[in-house]
UniProtKB/TrEMBL annotation:
InterPro entries: Hemimethylated_DNA-bd_dom, Hemimethylated_DNA-bd_sf. The keyword Ion transport does not apply. Keywords: Stress response. Residues 6-99 form the Hemimethylated DNA-binding domain. It holds the Pfam family YccV-like. This is Heat shock protein HspQ. SUPFAM superfamilies: YccV-like. Signal peptide: none annotated.
């Protein structure tokens, strides 16, 4: 029997990492760790992992983080419309997808 996992965050959600002190926007979600077995150390690979376009002093970077390390960021209300169009395609139902991927 296959286990179904629900992601807590969706594309376009603004999050922050509890330990690494970065903030950013979710640009992709994997239902579980997409790397090699054993690469996560003590972190469970059996949870959603997120690609986050993180905001840093030197600009943006892509971070790959497990769900249990992320939380909503109440200090940032969301993307501006300019940034939303820059990074995402948005369908008629309001679903976001990275510009490099089709809407799932």
């Amino acid at each position: 029997m296959m286990t179904q996992t629900s992601a807590r965050f969706a594309l376009g959600h603004v999050v922050r990492h509890r330990d690494a002190a970065f903030r950013g926007v979710v640009v992709d979600v994997d239902p579980s760790f997409a790397g090699q077995p054993g690469e996560t150390g003590d972190i469970s690979p059996d949870q959603p992992f997120y690609q986050v376009l993180a905001l840093g002093e030197g600009g943006g970077f892509i971070a790959y983080a497990p769900e249990d390390a992320l939380e909503p960021d109440p200090e940032i209300k969301g993307l501006s419309q300019v940034d939303e169009r820059r990074f995402f395609t948005v369908d008629a139902r309001g679903r976001h997808a990275p510009r490099t991927h089709a809407i799932h």
